Description:
It is a single chain. By secondary structure, the protein is an alpha+beta fold. It has one domain: Structural Genomics Hypothetical 15.5 Kd Protein In mrcA-pckA Intergenic Region, Chain A (Roll). Helices cover about 35% and strands about 20% of the residues. The chain has a five-stranded antiparallel sheet with strand order 3-2-5-6-7. A two-stranded antiparallel ribbon has the order 1-4. Helix 1 (about 15-25) packs across helix 2. The radius of gyration is 23 Å and the shape is elongated. The N and C termini lie far apart (about 90 Å).
Amino acid sequence: MSQRPDSDNNAPDAVRIDVWLWAARFFKTRALAKQAVVAGRVEIGGGACKPSRNVRVGDALVIERGEERFEIAVEALSERRGPAAAAQALYSESDESRARREQSAAQRRAERAGFRPPEGKPDKRARRLIRALGDIDAI
């Protein structure tokens, strides 16, 4: 039985992008990571990629997850999902990207602060007021 020459080093030299995104805890499941890559929300080196594309140490990734946008550099590779501290060691995020994410999160929080949905169902008096205000256009 022959062994590969790099078998003493347990770290692989390339990992599928969907597996790496799952191991780095950007997505909860590998299927979600694959969907994000197929949908074009993950870029490697400024270009779109397929889920089978290999990622290597030093690659620049842009990941869009919901309303967040991460610009990261791959620092290490892993095919296994580990604790959050180990996952954060797999990449480094640029300071500009982190500042933009924090700024947009603060803006979203401020936008939500203006409207507060009611905590419960309106009572009889409130329903009458709602009905009365609804007919104001008829006047």
